[in-house]
Amino acid sequence: MTIHIRLATEDDRPDLRELFLQARRATFAWLPSETFQLDDYDDQTRGERVLVAETDDGALVGFVALWEPDRFVHHLYLAAGQQRQGIGRALLHALGWPEQPLHLKCLRRNEAALAFYFKLGFVGIGQGQGADGEYVLLASQRVQGSG
Predict the structure, then answer these.
(1) What is the pTM of this model?
(2) Kind of pairing between the strands at 123-130 and 3-7
């Protein structure tokens, strides 16, 4: 399966809303499912640069949302069954990582995501408590000799 990364378009919005809803309900199983709504995508990605990952047949299998002023990855989600295929890494690469640093928050209870980021060389630089639980503030490290 070949994955293509591109900027999201308005035509992608219905699929992105659904992917965002389903992925969060599956990922954050400790929270009540009604916590998540279909229109959350619109509210939580407003003003952000959104890149999508799609297959050759045009199916959206993931997305990343970046708050560009701070190089802050606000969201990175994959469709069910799409983990461990290099899609998350490809989305981060499309943002310029690892040459350009990135920051993000990850809930401590989201152990799979924490393992993913640590495997990629992200390091914990802080922690805190949010409405959904404890989180770790992570930062990527620049590649030696870059920038």
Answers:
(1) 0.91
(2) unpaired
